[in-house]
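Now for a specimen:

…
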Amino acid sequence: MQTIKNDKETIRAWAMFDWSNSAYNLVITSTIFPAYYTIITTTEEHGDKVRFFGWEFVNTALSNYSLSVAYLIMALLLPFLSSSADFHGNKKTFMKLFTYIGSFACMLLYFFRLESLELGIICSAVAAMGYIGGVMFSNSYLPEIASVDQQDRVSAQGFAYGYIGSVLLQIICFVFILKPDWFGISDSSFPARLSFLLVGVWWILFSQIPFAKLPKGGSGINEGRQRKNGYQELVYVFKQIRRMAVLKRFLIAFFFYSVGVQTIMLVAASFGEKELHLGTDNLIIIILIIQIVAIAGAYLMSALGRRMGNIGVLILVVCIWICICVSAYYISSAKQFYLLAVVVGLVMGGIQSLSRSTYSKFLPENTRDTASFFSFYDVTEKLAIVLGLASFAFIEEQSNIRNSALALSVFFFAGLIGLIIVARTKKSQDYTIISEN
């Protein structure tokens, strides 16, 4: 059965998936876990060096390497899973699978201490894989539930729900961390570990709303096109993308600026703790500021997109990101970090929301291969994260973390050039976003 587009209840349910899993993105990747990890793995005896299955690493480099491996695995796996989902019409089944994998991995982080470093690294990587898979299949619902003229708004609504939900849970965790005496907590590691457990519970609990309301996902084999398996579906979609000049070039531009965006989101807390020694309390406050400002940023970029065009806004935002990278290299105080956090929040939600809706608008009209098309989008983003985290960790080990931050500006420059090429290609072909779905 064809999904009714622009149904308010369906859109709210879809947005609640962002609400449920964004708690992972905030608590595990951005605030409490990085701060907790950096603190417990920095010792007087070994400094910031740790041993992982006998191999020695800089602590933050190890966590970045582990995440890059997780993202690489998912980048290789998702195209085949998504093509299978389109072929069989069971996207929601995969959403559930990855949600449960990620949430249970978060719960296991409750047992993470320095003496169980391997468990912590493995569970954090598995949680990332669960998050990645769930988001990809959630993204692929966008063109199914919203018409082209509503996709910017709906995409922004999803990100806004995600920021609100994650901030609410962060505040709950924040109370345990700042006021452990209120609850008779004497173990200093318990509030952070409890936060990891709460993320898993929150993730599972609120994901039941979209699971109950969203359609199964897709309708199986498209009429008039007989394919034997998911691999053939993948090849078919890949050939379509190769013939679509604007979509193909947008993916290339998206890859380069995503290297910078996603890496900064993942390493910001570690940077603040390691370079400025801000402490968990300040880091949580800073990330909360980013999340709150990002809600406004997502809607602001959606509004600007209607006036300037999506590509024009993305070009502007990427220029701001370049300035952020350069500023991070010179930052020297907590106040400067707070100010930079506000700017990051403003453009973080905007660039993610607008990128997702822009890609959705470039898809072939009335396509049913949404999971397969969005797997290419997500694989592009995940490969960008692999490159970003690996290069960030490598540069840090060879020099310092400030040089790692500055080096990200190179990727933003490449993305900026790519977006300019997309704009010119789009104009020369008279390729308007409004006419695409």
